[in-house]
Amino acid sequence: EVLRIADKAILEGSATSMIVVMPDADTGQRGYFNSIKGDWRYEDFFFQEFIPYVEKEYRIKKEKRYRAVAGLSMGGGGAFVYALRHPELFSSACPLSAACGPLDREDMKRYTSREGMENATEEELEDYFKKHSVLDMVKNMPAEQKKAVRWFIDCGDDDFLYEGNSLVHIEMRKNNIPHEYRVRNGGHAWTYWRDSLPVVLSFISDAFHQY
């Protein structure tokens, strides 16, 4: 899907030529993040091994301006957290229908049972919350970071992840964090994302040029 959509957008001129690399984190582990016990370190792999490998093997420009992160669903959560944690690396971040992590500390109870954290200490759970709650990270974003990344957030009105994305949008508005927020009719499916991706590619392309 992404290959077809990207080729079409580049051919039609709505997106600039770019290299799109899609790592697979559908492993049955912690997705795009490190595990709470440190025995699964996908996020470390992404920044310490994956990005350097891509920059070594492909003819690309290594400046922040020419690097973006995007994803949908679980990958949208990765895009959110990666850009929030490393604003110095990405010019644009485009989470689509994103899993936003625990919305509050009460919501953490869902994650403790689902993510195999039943035996985690209170300190470990609090650390996890601060590192993986997109809403909490946005609430506590330093002032100097607010304009560091261009944000494009998109989630359908029938998506089961709509609440988290809506709350993040509201918090960004409260904190004067510039961002684009889109809500259209649709759910958590490719019928929605097919319409989102051409817009995302155009948005990312703007950062690659002067804007």
Describe this entry's structure for a reader.
Strands 1-2-3-4 form a 4-stranded parallel β-sheet, sandwiched between helices. Helix content is 45%, strand content 9%. The chain contains 8 helices and 4 strands; from the N terminus they run ααβαβαααβαβα. The chain has a single domain (2-208), classed as Rossmann fold (3-Layer(aba) Sandwich), CATH 3.40.50. The mean pLDDT is 92. With 211 residues, the protein is α/β, with parallel strands linked by helices. α1 crosses α8. The protein is globular, with a radius of gyration of 17 Å. α7 links the parallel β3 (150-154) and β4.
Give the arrangement of secondary structure elements.
Elements: H1 2-12, H2 42-57, E1 68-72, H3 74-85, E2 92-96, H4 108-114, H5 122-132, H6 134-139, E3 150-154, H7 162-174, E4 179-182, H8 190-208
Parallel strand pairs: 1-2, 2-3, 3-4
Helix pairs in contact: 1-8
Q: Can you tag this structure with a few keywords?
A:
4-stranded parallel beta sheet, Rossmann fold, 211 residues, single chain, alpha/beta, 4 strands
